[in-house]
Structure formats: structure tokens, C-alpha cells
């Protein structure tokens, strides 16, 4: 985006494609600033400047949205590590930094809420506690001027519906009812993404396309899937969701090579050892940049309007995705150009680089083909 930022809902109504970088939690785990397992974003409290830098990185790589790092930044998770008294500080700090980076780069700022870890259907107390977790995070998001709220990684339809209801009840921010064709929506727009595991149904037994259809009908501005599955196993289900929904659909897979045998990144195995790779050995099953481009092309062809990547995302992938959508983010200045490599990019028999042919032979060995 350049120039003045369009209202988020207007952009959706105009049919604009919105690119969204997620995956901060895993990336901070990979970099050694967040404990894998509990996945609590303590980095916001301990190293806030790094969080701001990561917001910058993804904006630079082409994300249209800066999502505040409040994933698992809720009461239950902070209680687990004895930092409950820093709950508000964590949320406000993550939101304020996201707002600043979004404004500096002319992006939208999204607040995030997620599965609560206390939700239980048919348990009144659990439902009350879950709603309270949502309420406080949503109210901070409104006060810190979020453009919209993401409710993500729900595996229960019931919890996703409760999140949506909470956003509608407590997220009364930049209300713009006049231009909305999603008549039930009030207050801040809600993007609700569910996580699909092996079966194409939620853990409370609603087929995922039907769950998305209901959430859309209840007023979510965007519905779809994030996390859990990689591009290869998410796309077929996204196609089914697209058939039953009227509005914009979200697809934010994890950039790992999931398959029919291993539909989720949690279930992936090391092709060499046959051992489980989640969460520490996932590097051996990462998508290639070309995989990401293929995913982007397919999403474009299907007409997915809210596209991104979740856990495993990094700047290089996101730039690839953005470029596949015809964007030129700031990071494109540094896109790969092997033609300018002094050895591998030199033409055969180049008189200006007499060593190039020899070095190429050394580098490629017997694997040399017409592309090398
Ligand atoms: Zn994820």
C-alpha cells in the first residue's frame, strides 16, 4: 500500500487482497527469545525492541498488516509463568509498538486474540473465564487503536463463535456501519481463523466449511484457516470453504511440507530418521521459496483475499509471497540476483572471469545440469 490507508473494511469490500504476516511466536522461539512448548510471548516484556524490529521486518517484506504480538499473552498463560501482574503491560506494549510501526509504514494494525486454553463447551465457569480473557484483550486493543481484531487458531467452533461475539460486544472501536455489507458486524471488524488438524471438522464436530459459513453469517468480516496445516493440505479445504462462504476467505498456512500422511506440522516426521520433528527439528521439512510462490499463485487463482503465513514464516518467504501478488515491498530491493554472482552467474567462457568455469565445476560436481 502507498498513500493514505484505506479503511480496512472498505478495502475488503473493494475486493483488495490483503497480505498478512503471522508467525512471530515460532520465529522468536527459533531465535532463542521464547520458550517452545508454552509459547508465551515474554519477549515483549524482556526485549521489546526486538519485537518492534520483527514488526519492521515483516512490514519491510510486504505485509499489509502489523499484528500485535499478543498471542498467548493472556491471563492463563501468564499465570503459568508467574507473570500475571504484567499482563496489561505486555498487551499495551505489544499493541503500542504495532501501532507505531503500522503508522510509520502505512499499514493496518491488528490486535490478536486466540484459543484460551481454558475453554470447555458446556462448562459455565470455563465459558465465563474464556470470555473474560477475550474481553480484557479486546478492550486494550480498542484503547490502543487497533484497526481490526484477529481471532485465531481456534479448533473449537464454539470458542471461535465466543471470540467473535466478544469482539462484537467489547470491540466498539472505529465503527463504520454505513459502508458495511456485513450487516451484523459492529465495532472493530473481526477476522476469525480456525485451525484444521487431521479431520476436516472442528474438535466440537462441526465440518470446517460449515463452521466458517456460520461465523461469516454471524458477522465476521473474514473467515478461514490459519496455522496447523501447510500449503499442500490447507488448500483443498480452503476450496471447500470458498464454496459455502460469500465474503473474503483467509488462508495462512505454516510453511512446512505437510502431506496426506502428515497433514499438520505437529505430525511431520524427518524423512531421513523417521522421527517426529515438532517443534525443534522442523527445519528439515521447511517449504522452499518456490513452494511459497506456488501457494501464493494457487491462492490467487482460487480468489483468496486474505493471504499470509503462520508459524515458520520469515522475511524471505513473505517477500516471495508479496512478489507473487505483484507487489514490490522494500525488501524487493534485495531480492536474489544470481546473474550478478561472480562465479555462478558468469556466462560460460566469460573472458572477464577466467576462473568461473572451473569454480562452477567444483561447486556443482556431477549435479550440474542446464540450470546450473
Ligand atoms: Zn501458527
TrEMBL record:
SUPFAM superfamilies for this protein: Homocysteine S-methyltransferase (SSF82282)
Cofactor comment text: Binds 1 zinc ion per subunit.
Amino acids binding Zn(2+): 227, 310-311
All residue ranges annotated as the Hcy-binding domain in the record: 6-325
Cofactor: Zn(2+)
Pathway terms, separated by semicolons: Amino-acid biosynthesis; L-methionine biosynthesis via de novo pathway
GO molecular function, one term: zinc ion binding
Entries under Pfam families matching the protein: S-methyl_trans (PF02574)
Signal sequence annotation: none
UniProt superkingdom: Eukaryota
EC number(s) from the headed UniProt entry: 2.1.1.5
GO biological process terms held by the UniProt record: methionine biosynthetic process; methylation
Keywords for this protein: Metal-binding, Methyltransferase, Transferase, Zinc
Cross-referenced PANTHER family: SLR1189 PROTEIN
Protein name: BHMT
Species whose genome carries this gene: Mytilus coruscus
Amino acid at each position: 500500500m502507498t498513500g493514505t490507508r484505506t479503511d480496512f473494511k472498505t478495502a475488503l469490500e473493494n475486493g483488495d487482497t490483503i497480505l498478512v504476516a503471522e508467525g512471530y511466536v515460532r520465529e522468536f522461539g527459533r531465535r532463542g527469545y521464547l520458550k517452545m512448548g508454552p509459547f508465551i510471548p515474554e519477549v515483549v516484556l524482556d526485549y521489546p525492541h526486538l519485537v518492534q524490529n520483527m514488526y519492521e521486518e515483516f512490514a519491510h517484506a510486504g505485509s499489509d498488516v502489523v499484528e500485535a504480538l499478543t498471542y498467548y499473552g493472556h491471563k492463563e498463560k501468564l499465570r503459568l509463568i508467574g507473570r500475571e501482574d504484567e499482563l496489561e503491560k505486555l498487551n499495551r506494549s505489544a499493541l503500542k509498538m504495532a501501532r507505531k510501526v503500522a503508522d510509520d509504514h502505512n499499514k493496518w494494525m491488528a490486535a490478536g486474540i486466540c484459543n484460551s486454553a481454558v475453554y470447555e463447551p458446556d462448562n459455565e465457569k470455563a465459558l465465563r473465564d474464556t470470555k473474560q480473557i477475550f474481553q480484557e484483550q479486546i478492550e486494550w486493543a480498542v484503547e490502543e487503536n487497533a484497526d481490526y481484531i484477529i481471532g485465531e487458531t481456534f479448533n473449537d467452533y464454539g470458542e471461535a463463535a465466543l471470540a467473535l461475539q466478544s469482539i462484537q460486544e467489547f470491540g466498539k472501536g472505529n465503527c463504520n456501519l454505513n459502508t458495511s455489507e456485513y450487516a451484523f458486524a459492529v465495532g472493530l471488524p473481526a477476522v476469525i481463523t480456525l485451525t484444521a488438524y487431521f479431520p476436516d471438522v472442528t474438535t466440537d464436530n462441526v465440518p470446517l466449511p460449515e463452521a466458517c459459513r456460520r461465523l461469516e453469517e454471524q458477522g465476521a468480516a473474514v473467515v478461514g484457516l490459519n496455522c496447523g496445516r501447510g500449503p499442500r493440505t490447507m488448500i483443498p479445504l480452503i476450496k471447500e470453504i470458498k464454496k459455502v462462504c460469500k465474503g473474503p476467505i483467509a488462508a495462512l498456512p505454516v510453511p512446512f511440507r505437510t502431506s496426506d500422511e502428515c497433514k499438520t506440522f505437529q505430525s511431520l516426521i524427518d524423512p531421513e530418521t523417521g522421527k517426529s520433528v515438532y517443534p525443534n527439528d522442523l527445519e528439515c521439512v521447511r517449504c522452499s521459496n518456490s513452494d511459497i510462490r506456488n501457494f501464493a499463485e494457487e491462492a490467487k487463482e482460487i480468489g483468496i483475499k486474505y493471504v499470509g503465513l503462520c508459524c515458520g514464516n520469515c522475511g524471505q518467504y513473505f517477500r516471495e509471497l508479496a512478489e507473487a501478488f505483484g507487489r514490490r515491498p522494500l525488501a524487493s530491493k534485495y531480492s536474489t540476483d544470481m546473474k550478478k554472482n561472480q562465479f555462478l552467474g558468469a556466462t560460460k567462457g566469460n573472458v572477464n572471469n577466467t576462473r568461473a568455469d572451473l569454480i562452477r565445476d567444483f561447486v556443482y560436481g556431477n549435479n550440474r545440469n542446464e540450470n546450473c
